[in-house]
Design brief:
The protein has helices at 6-14, 20-28, 35-47, 51-59, 72-89, 105-116, 121-150. It has seven helices and no strands. Helices cover 62% and strands 0% of the residues. 22% of the residues are buried. α1 packs across α2 (20-28). It has one domain: Orthogonal Bundle (UraD-like). The chain starts with 5 loop residues before the first helix and ends in an 11-residue tail after the last helix. It is mainly α.
């Protein structure tokens, strides 16, 4: 990512979090000395997202996916929970599932969405912002991991090196 032309870096960053300002900030502060510095900058930029920028990012977020063998009653329950969440908060439910074993995904999603339905809008805005930040961090780490896998340098090299 350090070596990519600006527009290419911004495109890659937008695939992690659909916020043009977030992507421009990160791309504009390159080069980063290491992955930890990039991730710290990504976190800081995510904390500064305005409500409008969060809404824009949420509009591009897919719903959390379930394992393919999930039974239909679970899909029905999840669809109802998503509909209730969107009716209350006006945007899709987002949840970072990094590190959650596949056999626990359904339970985690249902538990979190039901729990978060009890939040007031301001509290949920804070939780949503943090979940977007965690999703962006996970996707950025995955993107860098793919770049590292193609590189010949050590795993702790600067992003894109």
């Amino acid at each position: 990512m350090n070596d990519a032309p600006g527009p290419d870096a911004e495109r890659a960053l937008l695939s992690c979090l659909h916020s043009p300002r977030w992507a421009r900030l990160l791309a504009g502060h390159r080069p980063y000395p290491d992955t930890a510095s990039l991730l710290a900058a990504a976190d800081e930029a995510a904390y500064d997202l305005s409500p409008e920028e969060i809404a824009e990012a949420l509009a591009s977020e897919p719903l959390p996916s379930l394992p393919e063998d999930t039974y239909s009653a679970a899909h029905t329950a999840l669809n109802a929970a998503h509909a209730a969440y969107e009716a209350k908060f006006g945007h899709v439910f987002v949840l970072c599932l990094d590190g959650v074993p596949e056999d626990e995904v359904l339970d985690r999603v249902l538990e979190d969405i039901r729990s978060r339905l009890a939040n007031d809008p301001e509290e949920e805005h804070t939780v949503t912002r943090d979940q977007l930040r965690l999703l962006a961090r996970e996707r950025l780490t995955d993107t860098l991991g793919g770049a590292r896998d193609r590189a010949t340098g050590p795993r702790d090299a600067a992003p894109g090196k």
